[in-house]
What does this fold into?
Amino acid sequence: MGVTRRQFLKIGGAAAGASVGSGLVTDWWGLDPDVVHDPATDGDRIVPTFCEICFWKCGVLAHVKDGRVTKITGNPEHPLSRGRLCPRGTGGTGLLYDPDRLKKPLLRREKRGAQSFEAVSWDDALDTVAEGMLKIQERYGPEALALYNHGYGASWFKHLLRAYGSPNIAAPSYAQCRGPREVGFQLTFGAGVGSPEKTDMANSRVITLIGSHLGENMHNTQVQDLATALDRGAELVVVDPRYSTVAGKARYWLPIKPGTDLALLLAWMHVIVKEGLYDRDYLDRYAIGLDELKKHLEDKTPEWAWVQTTIRPETIVETARFLAGARPASLVHPGRHVTWYGDDTQRSRAIAMLNALLGSWGRRGGFVFPNQISLPKYPYTAYGKNPPLPADTPRGTVYPLADATLASGMCDASIPGTADYDIKGWIVYGSNLLQSLPDPEKTKRALQELDLVVVVDVLPAEIAGWADVVLPECTYLERCDEVHTPAYQEPFLAVRQPVVPPMYDTKPGWWIAREIAHRIGLADYFPWEDSIEYAKQRVKSGGFDCDVLMEKGVVVADAGPVTIEEGLEPDFPTPSGKIELHSEQLADAGFDPVPNFTAPEEPPPGHFRLLFGRAPVHTFGRTTNNRFLSEVYDENEIWVNARMAEELGLENGERVTLVNQDGVRSEPIRVKATQRIRSDCVYMVHGYGHSAKGLRFARGRGADDSKLVTRYRTDPIMGGTGMNVNFVRIERAGVPA
It folds into this structure.
C-alpha cells in the first residue's frame, strides 16, 4: 500500500507538514514583498534538478514563471523523493531569494573576525587566493593547505586540492557526526551503512530508534519508508531521553539516562542470547565469535543495566523479546549523528552486533546490499606523487581505524606544534565551522594562526567573518554540479542543472575552482569548458542518453537482488570474510574486541546534561536565515522537565541564560517546560544564536548550543568528537545566580 499524503505529514508533525505534499509556493521574494503570485501556477516551464537544502539530494521539479522560481515540488521519477519533499526541500526558494545572500566577492580590510570587508572584482579576489596558495606551496609545501567541505558542490574543490597536492581534505560530518557508525559497522560486517543509509524500513516489522529522531531529523525517503512500514503494521521501539515526535508513535518509549545506550544494548543482547532468540542458522553460516560474545554477555543482565539506564529489568526483557520476535525484519537503526560520549564507535558496533543477532544484515526489512551505476571518470591529468599523510592526528595520539580525515584534527594541526606539520591555509566550502566544530574558541585560535583563509558560500555565516577572501557561490538552483550516482536499492543517476541564471555577481563552484586552477598552473586538471560539458561527457561515456536525463532529471536502471531472500549471496569484507562478533582488529589495536560499558560523568550539582538536535523544517544552522522555513519555526527553545522548571521557579516561555560547566554563557533563550524530557537533561535545537552581521534575519534569534560545547571526549578508535559531555545550569535572563 502506498503512503498517503496525510500519513506522510503525520510523521513530520502537523506544524511542519503544511508544505510537504505539493511544494511551498513562493509568496515572498525578498525583492518585492508586495507581489503575491498565483499559487495554482505550474509556471512557464518545469526544470528537474536535485536539492541541496540538506545532504539527502532529493529530486525536485522547479517551477519557473517569468524568470522566477514559483515553487519546488518532488520529482516523482526520482527514487529519493518519489514525488514528495520534506519541509526543508520545499524551501529552496527561500535560499534562492534570500536578501542576505553574498552578492559580490569580498576582501578583508580589518583583523580576522571583525566582519569588515570591501567588495572587489572576481579577478582581484581570485588573484588574491592564487597568490596565497602559491606562497603556501612554496614556503611549506602543498600539504599545508586544507579544505573543509560540506555539500555536493565541494567535488570541484576536492579535485582542486588533490591536483594541488594536499591530502588535507575533510568534512566535519565525519568526525563530528557519522564516523563512528561507519567504523562500527565496518568492524562487524566489513561495510558501513552509507548515505543514503542502506535500510529497508518499508518492509520492517519492528524498527528500533536509539537516539535517532526520524520525523525531526527529516530525511525524506526514510520518513516515507517509516510511514509505509507503520501503515503495514510495523511497530516502533524508541530509546530517547526525550519524548520526540517519533516516540509518540512508538509501542515502547524507553526514556533512557543519557550516555547509557551501550548498557541497554548489551543487556538486550544478553536476553536474546540467553533465551536463544537469535538467528541461529544465519549466524552459523555467516558469523564468527558467538562463543566469545556469549561469555562477554554473561554478567550484562537487565538488572545490571537497570542501575545504569534507569530502564526497569522487566521492560528490558520485554523489549528484547519484542525485537527478536520480528527477526529478521527487525531493524535497529544505525542513526546518523552518533558522536555523543567518546565511546561512540563501540556503541555503534553494539548496534551492528545486535542487528547481526537478529539476522537483519542483508535481509528484507533490515539492511540491503545496494546497487549502483558506475560512470567512467572524466579523463583528467593524473594527480602528482603521493602527498604525505594528512595532518589531522595530534602529536602523541593515533586513531587506527579512522577511514577519513578528521576535520577537528585539521583544526588542531593549524595551531603550531600540535601535529607532525602545521597547516597554514584553509579553504572552507559550505561549512560554518564555528557551529560545526567543537570548542569554537579553539577554532578561532586556529584561524588567527593561518596565512590564508578562503570561504566559498552562499550566505555570510560566522566563518565568513574570519576569511581573508569570501567567494560568493550561486545556489544549487543556479548551477550544474557533478552527476549523482549513489549506492541505493534502485540504481540511478541524477543531474543537477541550472533552473535560473545566477543572481547578483555570484558564480558556480566549478567555475571558481577552475579559475583558481588556471591561476596556479593547474589548468590541465580542468580541461572542460563548463560543468555541463563535463557532465555530458561522463553520462555519454556510461552509455546513457543526456537528453533523457536532462528532461527527467534522473535515469533509473534495473535493480539487481539486494537481499539474501532474493538470492543474493552476501559478502562480508572483514579479515575473516564473515560477520565478526568478536573483533581481532580491535584487539590487535589495543581495544576491547567486544564492547564494554563505562558509565558517563554525572552533572555537577545544579546542572543538567546538554542535549541538542534539529527541527524538521531546518538543516541545522544552514537554513535558520530562510524566511520561508522560519514561518514554521523561527527560534529555538530550551526543553526543561516541567517538574524541574517548577522547582526552579521558571515559567513556560520566559527567557533564561544557560551557563556551562566552564562558565560560558548562552544568549537568552525561551523555556519550554514539558513532561516530554527527563529531569536530568535539557534539550535545544542546534543552529541558532547567530552572530554574523550579514545574517540579518537569523542574527540574535535563540541561543547557540555550539558556544556551550567547550568540552568534548574523543573516540580513541576513530577520533570522533563526542559533544554530549557538557552540562549547563539555568539562570533567569539578566539575573545572575
About this structure: The CA atoms of residues 378 and 537 lie 7 Å apart.
